[in-house]
Amino acid sequence: MSFFDNVYEVVKKIPYGMVMSYGDIAELLGNKKMSRQVGWALHVNPSPETIPCYRVVNRFGQVSRAFAFGGENRQRQLLEQEGVIFDKKGCVKPCFFVSKRI
Length: 102
Description:
- The protein has 102 residues and is mainly alpha-helical.
- The protein has helices at 3-12, 22-28, 35-43, 71-81; strands spanning 20-21, 56-57.
């Protein structure tokens, strides 16, 4: 499997109502310096219906300004529909981050 395929498999395992960071996914796949490549993989997500890329946020818990499937407001809306809560600075509250061992 390619790196992108591995990213998609990890993202599919992020539970409903939870998030992971790009860096967490990169670290889980063996190289925490590959977070940008995780972002690239998600930007070209071949199946957004089954690969919930909106559950991936930056290291601060912020949604992507370049969310490929409707922009940052859409990503936040999708997360809020799953019960994810943001603080006043627009960051996902820490309790919604899933363990790196999914």
